[in-house]
Design brief:
By secondary structure, the protein is mostly beta strands. It has a single domain, classed as Porin (Beta Barrel), CATH 2.40.160. It has 2 helices and 11 strands; from the N terminus they run H-E-E-E-E-E-E-H-E-E-E-E-E. The strands form 2 sheets. It has an 8-stranded antiparallel beta barrel. A two-stranded antiparallel sheet has the order 9-10. It is elongated, with a radius of gyration of 19 Å.
Amino acid sequence: MKKYFLAFSSVLLFLAAIQTQALAQFNFPLFGLKGGVNFSTLYAEDVENTKMIGGFNIGFFSKLPVSDFIAIQPEFYYTTKGGEATYKNAFLDGTASFKTDYVELPILLILNVTENLNLQVGPYLSYLLSGKVKNVSSNSYFDFEDNIDTEDFNRFEGGVAVGAGLDLGALGVGIRYNHGLTKVGKEKTFMGYKYTFPNASNGVINVYASFALTGGN
């Protein structure tokens, strides 16, 4: 998965670098609202099977022009993540559904390929607000619902986002993939054995719409 992610990022940057026609002209900072739907999952080496779950994100964005075709776009929003995973290891044998809530701050490089089309890439940092797990299998050593709560998850998550968007005046639409580079669960010790549960990172596809409240040319 990481190989495809890095390849996709490289393609986006290459396309932006060779594009020389129909560059968008934007000279003033923008500020507005954005939100959309999430399709999230968990990536881990010791997982038999994973499924996506639905969610949403909502918040603010600002687009700060650097040149005629490059801008920096910081965002701040509330987002849901998680996934359904089947684990099999020394202590866990079953299926669990994880749901986590974060506030997230991406700092994106926006590359305008044409007047309307843009490409996006950059890091993000998230802070966990809440986390819970639902036990969806009776075949497990632990009662997930009673023994795992927000304190069992890492509070901070870092990752990389890549995507593409369309600017249609004050309205924008797009799709983005966020790939977590840190583990969702904390490392713990049980009877001298160290484990991380969930030993996984977040992966989120979000489809969004944005609306600029101020700025523009």
